[in-house]
Amino acid sequence: MIKKILFFLLSILLTSFLVGAQTTILNLMWLSSLEMPVTLMVYISSIFKDFYMLSLSPVVGMLPISIPPLLPTLIFLGFLISFSVTWLALKWVKVEKKYAYGIAGAVALFFIVYLMPVVFFGVDMLAGARTPLGKLSLIICGYVGGHFMGSKLNKIEL
Amino acid sequence: MKILKQISLITITYFLCFSLFANHHEESYKLEVVAEDLSFPWGIAFISNEEILITEKTGELRLISQGVLLPEPISGVPESLFRGQGGLEGIVLHPNFENNQYIYLSFSETDQNNKKLNTLRVIRGKLEGTSLTEVETIFRASPSRKTANHYGAKMVFLKDGTLLITSGDGFNYREEAQKLDNHFGKIIRVNDDGTIPQDNPFIETPGAKPEIWSYGHRNLQGIVTNLDGSVIYEHEHGPRGGDELNIIEKGKNYGWPAITYGIDYSGALVSPFKEKEGMEQPIKYWVPSIAPSGMTFYNGDLFPDWKGSLFISALVPGDVRRLDLEGTNVVSEEVLFNKIGRIRNIVTAPDGSLVMVTDSNKGKLYRVTPK
Q: What is the predicted pLDDT for the residue at A125?
């Protein structure tokens, strides 16, 4: 059970990292197109800064109190629902876990990126989700996170 | 025992002196509520010292006459889209209002060709009594947007009679602020009838919108000139941190979102860069954000010590910043009026008093006068 929880948390962290990196890379590519001095070092340091700020640092200043980092919290809620549904579905449907959980992760991210603008008057809070291609790549990040979870569950049970 | 008594006496005297000193400053002015129960008041314009026009974000234009808020709103105001940060917002009188009765209003409106989209529109109309007539469109931002955020919507007339309009980046469209083929994140300059001045900076640039005066802005909610109109001050909301006060010059790029002192609400970097050649620096910036919402250049006589200061209203945590200027440099900042909540706008009245509105569905209009 502890291992399952650990892998669940790791899958959230992995997805959160990938989502952050996608946002950072797209942003830096755009800055580069403006002839801003975007070097390899800027890429590396920005990816890690964004990972820290998006995934590990509490949000201060948005509300009167500090709140947990939004991105992993959203992914946590999304994965909790979609993985629970997958766990139930797998009792009746025969699909390899890594694919089933991968699809569950993708579905979770699909809802996160498409529901966010509904809540925030059309605003995509994640800069990387502002184009259809960006949304698609975030959904793929969700798939990777779910796939990781599914493959680890397979290993535990083997 | 005697020593203890002496220490207590000294301590009490010290705190008494300190509190008297601390209160002294607030006693130099008084705050009086002129009107209340305003529904998200936004823009303020003075017809005279006793006649004040107020826009309510919910879509009404109200008139306060002789200190009384008239129960009926001004009729004939076009319908606006009250959603998110949108609604009926800016108001400015024509410099020759006494003779032509023109007022200018900015607001968000639904795109008539696609109801899912909306945009910023500016109209002018003649104020005849309590009706707005002869309404005509002066400017409509293009393209339309899906979001209901970051409209800008502030206006100021320059001394040459042209009108500057701030047009925000629409939040989702921040990269567009660096392009000249759209109105996102721009300051627009038009003649008083909406035509385009021939000396606008990009009028000859292929593909550029000819109304653009400056670009690279985010959500610009304050724009004023100094007394002789030679300097244009503008402030804009940053994201998390990075609110800016800029001096606006023709054709300049103010950098958003390529350079910024703020980060995204999500926590991600907007840009790792804070400066770049060819992009203007603010004369002041705030980290963390104060959410600047309105501005006035004070040149009244009621507060001689404040003459030549910029007053900026702030939504977070809710106060007014008085900026002392030496030339165009900010030399000090003083926090004022920080006990009345989120302040949406501040203007100077004709008599030199300061007038502010609070941001609420039960908004109040305050007048600040010397005590």
A: 84
- A152: CB partners within 8 A, 6+ apart: A3, A7, A10, A11
ipTM value of the model? 0.88
**B91, B53 in Cβ contact below 8 A?**
yes
CB B180 within 8 A of CB B156: no
Residue B138 backbone dihedrals phi, psi, to 5 degrees: -100, -35
Q: Is B217 a catalytic residue?
A: no
Please name the member of B149, B264, B272 whose beta carbon is closest to the beta carbon of A46.
Answer: B272
User: What pTM value is reported for the model?
Assistant: 0.91
Of A28, A61, A70, the CB nearest to B266: A70
A114: contact with B, CB 8 A cutoff: no
Which H or E run contains A98?
A: helix A97-119
In this predicted model, what pLDDT tens digit does every residue of B271-304 receive, in sequence order? 999 999 999 999 999 999 999 999 999 999 999 9
Whether B317 and chain A come into contact, CB under 8 Å, resolves to no
| Interacting residues of A50 by C-beta distance below 8 A, sequence separation 6+ | A20, A21, A23, A24, B267, B268, B269
DSSP three-state, residue B209? coil
